[in-house]
Amino acid sequence: MGVAVVTGASTGIGKATAQRLARDPGVELVLVARREELLRKLAESLPCPATWVAVDLTAEDAPQRVRAHLEAEHGGDLHLLVNNAGAAWRGSFAETGYANVHRHMELNFDAVVRLTEALLPLLRKSAPSAIVNVASTAGRVSRARTGAYSASKFALIGWSDSLYAEEGAHGVHVGLVLPGFVRTEGFPATELREKAATRWIVSKPETVAEAIHRCGPGRKAERYVPRPYALAAALRILAPSLVRRVLSGGAAENLTTSTGNDRDRGSKPG
Ligand SMILES: NC(=O)c1ccc[n+]([C@@H]2O[C@H](COP(=O)([O-])OP(=O)(O)OC[C@H]3O[C@@H](n4cnc5c(N)ncnc54)[C@H](OP(=O)(O)O)[C@@H]3O)[C@@H](O)[C@H]2O)c1
Q1: How far, in Å, is the centroid of ligand 1 from the Cα of 186?
Q2: Residue 85, ligand 1, Cβ within 6 A
Q3: What's the mean pLDDT in 232-242?
Q4: Cβ(84) to ligand 1 under 6 A?
Q5: Measured distance between the N- and C-terminal CA atoms of the chain, rounded to whole angstroms
Q6: Do 204 and 183 touch, CB atoms closer than 8 A?
Q7: Count of CB atoms within 10 A of residue 228's CB?
Q8: Which atom of ligand 1 lies nearest, measured to the CA of 88?
């Protein structure tokens, strides 16, 4: 391992991933998110060299700022890019409209593509290297009030599969991680944790961090977290009418959790 960029490193899965990668010998981390104080504290707590770039990844100049930092502080080397930063705002299409689709695509898809475009030359130059894209089980199966989020993750998965096929010849592995429910600041899963019947399906950021490690340095192509969530994706292809019936029924409402954004700022865009 050499230089690794982790986006969304200030909390949750990104923070756990930085802590996991920091245990590898020879790693140098670059932590990326908006909240500088959290990045600074994390960098100081890690057992490896770590720098940070405090940036809003949807900003026009964000990709160039991360690249310039890598060139100035790490000699332009890049062995691992973990595209993890992301968010969700719940709401039906009728309530939240295109504005909600746009803000999901801007962060969960466009920002990933733009950052990868800026850093791909460094990844190729540093090969063997890897990209890990953090998608979601919601990128395989859609539920009510999560359509905009699902659309952004479906897009990320489709694009990642193509990038995998293109970049292998250049020594850049592309791994895909698809978490289910994971308790974090942005996805507290409060509704599920409150009930004994659903508490067990909520996993920890550290488990996803391990999967990210397997798909980056470990060069696996794809991991669901927890692994049995792959069944939901398989059923969506093999028994689509059954899945539609279940997810349109009342029981599915138990699986639609509110997010950190809904709690803090309300889900209506604007
Ligand atoms: N937790 C789950 O249940 C779950 C399930 C499936 C997939 N995922 C995916 O896992 C990834 C990580 O989510 P998480 O659960 O760890 O949530 P989280 O704790 O809310 O972390 C999100 C991270 O993204 C950063 N971020 C958000 N907007 C940003 C922006 N505009 N520019 C730069 N950084 C930004 C946040 O940092 P700042 O606020 O400091 O910028 C934070 O570090 C996301 O892509 C999410 O879609 C999560």
Answers
A1: 6
A2: yes
A3: 94
A4: yes
A5: 42
A6: yes
A7: 9
A8: 47
Tally of CB atoms within 10 A around 79 = 23
Residues with active-site annotation: 149
Token look-up 């309300």 returns 266
Give dist(CA 35, CA 24) in Å, integer. Answer: 25
For ligand 1, pick from 10, 141, 149 the residue to mutate: most ligand atoms within 8 Å of CB.
10
pLDDT tens digits for 120-167? 999 999 999 999 999 999 999 999 999 999 999 999 999 999 999 999
State whether the beta carbon of 34 lies less than 6 angstroms from ligand 1: yes
Whether the pLDDT of residue 250 is over 80: the answer is no
Q: Is the peptide bond before 128 cis (omega within 30 degrees of 0)?
A: yes
